[in-house]
Amino acid sequence: MFPEAYCIHRAAGRLRIKIPSEKGNKAYFAFVEEQLARCPLVTAAKSIPITGSVLLSYSGEVPKIAEFAEKNKLFLLISDKQNPGSVAQATITSYKALDAQIQKLSGGNLDLPHTAFVTLAGVGIYQIARGKIKAPAWHVALWYAFNIFLKAQRK
Fold first, then answer.
1. CA-CA distance, 30 to 72, in Å (whole number)?
2. Which of 21, 44, 88, 128 has its CA 20 to 30 A from that of 99?
3. Per-residue confidence at 127, pLDDT binned at 50, 70, 90?
4. pLDDT of residue 33 exceeding 50
């Protein structure tokens, strides 16, 4: 079996893959870099053995690159998203779980963005009603509420 890899960063045309089990293995990363350079979708490959990662510049689809790596027994890309142990992934997972719970409790009438909108708008109105028109509390809450509402409408 070949090593497991995780995408730890992804931007348009750039992909950083972490291969923790091979960290520090210069021979392995030299081989991976050489083999990935043969992939038609990869325009550049640079390995960093000390961190256990490979930086790819590419055009095309990441799953096709993962397929190439697996076919050539370089690594198995477990996820083309964030590393499952990352803070970003944990935040996304928590957000989705909370959103699902709110939808379930409200019978599908509310979701997390709309709940945040109502809450922040309420805080803003409450601050105004109490005469707390000092910067920034009430208008910041209203601004955030309005932005959340607009973003939720685009989905």
1. 14
2. 128
3. confident
4. yes
Q: Rounding to the nearest 10 degrees, give the CA dihedral for residues 121, 123, 124, 125.
A: 90
d(CA 118, CA 84): 32
Pairing of strands 4-11, 76-79: parallel
Average pLDDT for 11-23: 90
H helices of the chain, in order, are 26-36, 62-71, 87-105, 112-129, 137-154
Q: Is the pTM of this model over 0.70?
A: no
48, containing H or E segment = strand 42-48
Structure tokens at 89: 């992934």
Are the C-beta atoms of 137 and 127 separated by less than 8 Å? yes
- Give the largest Cα separation in the chain, rounded: 68
Dist. CA 77–CA 5, nearest whole Å: 5
Q: What is the DSSP letter of 25?
A: -
Per-residue model confidence as pLDDT tens digits over 101-126:
888 898 989 888 888 888 878 877 88
Complete edge-to-edge strand list for the sheet that includes strand 76-79: 42-48, 53-58, 14-18, 4-11, 76-79
